[in-house]
Amino acid sequence: MTYANQSDMIARFGADEVLMLTDRAALGVIDAAVLLTALEEADAEINPYLQSRYVLPMDVVPRILVGYACDIARYRLCGATATVTDDTRSRYKDAVRFLENAASGKVLLGISVANAPAVSVNPVAISGSGRTFSRTSLADY
Asked: CA geometry: angle at 99 spanning 7 and 116, to 5°?
C-alpha cells in the first residue's frame, strides 16, 4: 500500500502535469507504471523516518502524508523530460523537514505510536509483612 495514488497526484497537481511527468513514451496518456514506481520510491523515502516511531504499514494514512508523498513522487519524476523547478524542490525540502520533525516527535501524526508504553488495566500492588528492623529494635547495637 502506498501513501498516495494516481488520483491523489492528479488532485494535487492536475492531470496535465502528471501526464507530462510520466508519459515517457509520448503516448498521450499517464503511464501508471512510471507513476507507481515514483510513489513507491516516495514510500521508501518516507518509511525510514516513520518506522522507529509509528506502526507500519498504517491502517489509515494521515492526509498530510498523502500530500507529502505526492510532493516527493513529483520531485522523483523530474529528470530527463522535466526539470526540477524551485516550487518542486521547495515542496520536496518541506516534506523532508516535516518527516524529520515527525521522526523526532516534534510533530505528531495522530496515529498510534510504535513504542508507546502499554496502558495497564491492572496496576501493580506490592504488599509484605511488617518491618523486621527499626530504630528501637536496633537501639542496643
From this structure: 110
For 101-125, the pLDDT digits (tens) are 999 999 988 886 654 444 455 666 6
| Crossing angle (nearest 10°) for helices 15-22 and 6-13 | 120
What would the grid cell of residue 6 be? 494516481
Q: How many Å apart are CA 63 and CA 15, to the nearest integer?
A: 20
Nearest to 42 by CA among 88, 95, 110: 95
CA–CA separation, 59 vs 127, rounded Å?
43
What phi and psi, each to the nearest 5 degrees, are found at residue 61?
-85, 125
113: which strand partners?
54
Do residues 81 and 20 lie in contact, with contact meaning Cβ atoms separated by under 8 Å? yes
Q: Where are the alpha helices (DSSP H) in the chain?
A: 6-13, 15-22, 32-50, 63-77, 86-104
This prediction has a pTM of 0.78
Using alpha carbons, select from 46, 50, 52, 47 the residue that is nearest to residue 72: 46
Over residues 30-80, the pLDDT tens digits come to 999 999 999 999 999 999 999 988 888 888 899 999 999 999 999 999 976
Cell numbers describing residue 61: 494514512
